[in-house]
Design goal:
The complex is a heterodimer of chains A (220) and B (92).
Chain A: H1 35-49, H2 55-67, H3 70-82, H4 84-92, H5 94-100, E1 109-114, E2 119-124, H6 133-136, H7 146-154, H8 156-162, E3 172-177, E4 182-187, H9 199-203, H10 208-212
Parallel strand pairs in A: 1-4, 2-3
Helix pairs in contact in A: 3-4, 4-5, 7-8
Chain B: E1 4-7, E2 26-37, H1 39-42, E3 50-59, H2 60-64, E4 74-80, E5 84-86
Classes of the chains: A alpha/beta (220), B mainly beta (92).
């Protein structure tokens, strides 16, 4: 499942729709605009006409959204690994702790859930695709699929096995369904053998999937 | 002792954020989250009442019964106050 993707148009398998290597071409977007595409263009042009926004401001905001990456979340996790007081603040109020590190997380309500020797946490949004974008960037495609959203709550251990994660029997799995106003980030356990590493080096061990719960940090 | 609650087994039309698979299920309040605008009104651009929001923890055994992959594993979800009924008679 981690490598499922839906970028290709499988509707036409006729040969002229294929590249020389046999890969289907992506269709041109020549279809009519949808209702919401028209709405977006109308609102954007009105905002520009009335002087509330400039095209440069809109482009900059898109750039800001695209620039967010799991590196932000990794920095938060690494800080929690080396600073017990910060970790306590993160678990008590993850929004405030993230702001303290300078991450603009807007009005987001963030909850950090901690993996321990006997607890493994997994994040899902069964209703749509809620994701802590401010700390992790855009969600992976599989996170938004019906397969992940339905199976993560029904058979989380099987899903984790497909991600390469075999949990010992004594570990309890706690699944977190982001059904309303909260967003979640997993605080993975610090890998063994990392005692001598500094914060920046530790952050490099923290993967996106380890903060969703579908993976573990890299080993040192 | 965590307070026990049951998610109401209602099926109203419209935008609702109480997942269907949890309706009628019993869990415990893991923490209270404060008050948030009711998404059932916000979804339609209507003025929204503020509703208390709770994180409720269910066991997989409660949700899936005998088909649970591991009965003792848990699921936490955010449920609005108007979607839960309190089961402990002496609760405040």
């Amino acid at each position: 499942m981690p490598h499922d993707h839906h970028d290709h148009d499988h509707d036409h398998f006729h040969h002229e729709g294929m590249s020389p290597s046999g890969h289907p071409y992506r269709g041109d977007n020549d279809g009519p605009l949808t209702y919401w595409q028209r709405m977006e263009i109308a609102v954007r042009e009105l905002m520009l006409e009335k002087g509330h926004l400039t095209p440069a401001e809109i482009a900059a905001q898109i750039e800001t959204m695209d620039a967010r990456s799991p590196a932000n979340g990794a920095a938060v996790v690494a800080r929690a690994w080396i600073d017990p007081a910060f970790k306590a603040r993160l678990l008590a109020n993850a929004s405030e702790a993230s702001r303290e590190m300078g991450f603009d997380i807007g009005p987001l309500h963030l909850i950090a859930v901690e993996n321990t020797a006997d607890t493994h946490n997994l994040i899902v949004c069964t209703l749509c695709s809620c994701y802590p974008r401010n700390l992790l960037g855009l969600p992976p495609d599989w996170y938004k699929t019906r397969a992940y959203r339905s199976r993560a709550v029904r058979e989380p251990r099987t899903v984790l096995q497909e991600f390469g994660l075999d949990l010992p029997d004594h570990v309890t799995v706690r699944v977190h369904d982001s059904t309303a106003d909260m967003r979640y980030i997993v605080l993975p356990a610090r890998p063994e053998g990392t005692e001598g590493m500094n914060e920046a080096a530790l952050a490099k061990l923290v993967t996106r999937d380890s903060m969703i719960g579908t993976g573990l940090p890299r080993s040192a | 002792m965590a307070e026990r609650v049951r998610v109401k087994a209602l099926t109203p039309p419209g935008h609702v954020r109480a997942p269907f698979y949890l309706r009628g299920k019993v869990g415990v309040i893991e923490r209270t989250l404060g008050e948030f605008g009711n998404p059932e009104q916000l979804a339609y651009g209507l003025p929204a009442e503020r509703k208390p929001l709770y994180r409720v923890r269910f066991t997989m055994a409660e949700i899936w019964g005998a088909r649970a992959e591991r009965p003792g594993d848990t699921l936490d979800a955010e449920i609005y106050g108007h979607w839960i009924e309190r089961l402990d008679a002496d609760a405040p």
